[in-house]
Design a protein that fits this description.
The protein has 19 helices and no strands. It is mostly helical and 528 residues long. Helix 11 runs parallel beside helix 16. It is globular and about 80 Å long.
């Protein structure tokens, strides 16, 4: 990069700030929606079955089009795609808040998902482009931490807005901030130099990929509700497989494919995607379990459950630059392995929680979760991007984020299904060993009955109430044991990421002089 060009470049940290605005808002809106669902149900008459489509109408277009939007960024310009996506996302978010029917909510949520898919993978490549290779890991760490912070802050700030203001404000409140982000992006960001607008768009690849991934997302989110062996889910599974086979066949015979399958000959890129998949399986699974445990077992309110996650956010934000710095100096393998190991041990330690667990016990573990993620995510992102040619970094980013997104959905689907099954299992075991006729049960019932009678309740009523209380205690203990089982499963998934990280191959470090200057023109390719 010559001196004149470098002089015209915007400040790299300002670029990071601008790009982070969009990703933080996307994560915030997406994660805070759970808090608003019950209010939206009463406003628009959604049923428990149909309200899930408020979530899916965002997840399907977002998850299914990530590689396509990354590819379009490579082809038409990453700034164009980022700005266009943020504009679409902002307008759609505002319209969700102004929706007048259940149909309009679904339509605007679809547009939200498309907008987020347009800017998210291109945001990642804009950050990578703005920083030199020896600082890229640290920058990716800061961007990744802020993106994750947005997702974790959603239930906290969103919970407050929904409880004390109005659910529509949840969406409308981000518009001024998003507008500032759009103006800054237009005026400050520079367009990428690897555009190839003459390239043909791979429509066949796009249709088959979207069909396959959309089917997969619906399967993961509706499988437990519909039944994994139901005609609906089995039919979707067949569509998914056929579409994916058609996609792979089409891409292997195209001169300009949507997704260059040669990317998957890159050992490090494949390993980074596997680790990302497993990381988000464990992370989203853990973040699915912890708030539910806080609310259902420990009795936290939604807002308090959201606030309880602040130690995780804080440790991620403060330590993410350190993870990136380690990646810049020592490569991605060691920090990633260490981070996944810490995450695995921490998730395992959650299985000892009981109905009497104090918050400091949880807070300390959340801090260590944040440390593990800070050590994992930025080195992992850097490893995924560093071995790709610059002209393919957009589609590579889309594929990488796709693996993370699908991994998170798989983690929630698996643990959500197993939570009910394990609770039923433990409830059956406990109920059979502590029935009303056992001496232990009789002692507990008698103690509870005595206390109720002292408060003025008649003997027969007190006995029935005591029996009901005992059954509630059994059910609650069964739930605690079920959560314990699932935290161990989440820990196992994270431990698999430690093994997968062994496949990451670090690019040999070179001198800080000419070698890095040369490296700024194209990210080195390491196909193994």
């Amino acid at each position: 990069m010559n001196t004149a060009t470098a002089r015209n470049q915007p400040n790299k940290y300002f670029v990071l700030f601008i790009v982070s605005l969009g990703t933080v808002l996307s994560g915030y809106v997406s994660s805070s929606l759970d808090i608003a669902l019950s209010n939206m149900m009463s406003t628009f008459g959604f049923t428990m079955d149909s309200v899930t489509w408020v979530l899916l109408s965002y997840m399907i277009p977002y998850g299914a089009t990530l590689p396509i939007m990354g590819k379009l960024g490579d082809q038409f310009g990453r700034k164009k795609m980022y700005v266009s996506g943020l504009v679409l996302f902002t307008i759609a978010t505002m319209m969700v808040g102004l929706s007048w029917s259940s149909v309009t909510v679904i339509v605007f949520r679809i547009l939200q998902g498309i907008g987020a898919a347009m800017f998210f993978p291109n945001a990642m490549t804009l950050v990578a482009d703005a920083f030199p290779p020896n600082e890229r890991g640290q920058a990716m760490g800061m961007w990744g931490a802020l993106a994750a912070a947005g997702a974790v802050l959603g239930p906290t700030i969103g919970g407050y807005i929904v409880e004390y203001l109005n659910w529509r404000m949840l969406f409308n409140s981000i518009v001024p901030i998003a507008a500032v982000g759009i103006v800054l992006a237009i005026t400050v960001l520079q367009e990428s130099e690897t555009n190839n607008t003459s390239a043909k768009i791979d429509y066949v690849g796009g249709v088959t990929l979207v069909t396959s991934l959309s089917s997969l997302i619906i399967i993961l989110n509706r499988g437990a509700k519909e039944g994994w062996t139901s005609l609906y889910i089995v039919s979707l599974f067949i569509i998914m497989v056929v579409s994916m086979v058609a996609f792979l066949y089409a891409e292997s015979h195209k001169e300009e494919p949507l997704v260059d399958l040669h990317l998957f000959k890159n050992t490090t890129f494949v390993a980074a995607n596997i680790v990302g998949f497993l990381t988000f399986m464990a992370l989203n699974g853990g973040l699915f379990l912890i708030p539910f445990f806080l609310r259902n077992i420990l009795g936290y309110t939604p807002i308090h459950a959201g606030l309880a996650l602040i130690p995780l956010i804080a440790s991620m934000i403060f330590l993410a630059p350190m993870g990136g710095k380690l990646a810049d100096t020592s490569g991605g393998k060691i920090p990633t392995m260490l981070g996944m190991l810490i995450l695995s041990i921490t998730l395992y330690s959650f299985h000892t929680m009981t109905a009497d667990t104090s918050y400091p016990f949880i807070a300390i573990r959340l801090i260590f979760m944040g440390i593990g993620l800070a050590l994992t995510m930025s080195p992992l992102s850097n490893a995924a991007m560093a071995t790709l040619p610059k002209e393919k970094s957009g589609v590579g980013s889309g594929v990488f984020n796709l693996f993370k997104n699908v991994g998170g959905s798989v983690g929630i689907a698996i643990l959500g299904t197993l939570l009910d099954q394990r609770q039923i299992f433990h409830n059956h075991i406990l109920s059979s060993s502590i029935d009303a006729s056992s001496s232990m049960a009789q002692q507990v019932i008698a103690g509870i009955q005595g206390g109720l009678m002292q408060s003025g309740m008649q003997s027969s009523q007190a006995y029935a109430a005591a029996l009901s209380i005992l059954q509630g205690m059994v059910s609650k203990q069964a739930a605690v044991m079920a959560y314990g089982d699932l935290f161990q499963i989440a820990a196992f998934l994270a431990s698999l990421g430690v093994i997968a990280a062994l496949l990451i191959r670090d690019i040999p470090k070179v001198g800080a002089g000419k070698a890095i200057e040369a490296d700024e023109e194209s990210i080195p390719v390491a196909i193994h």
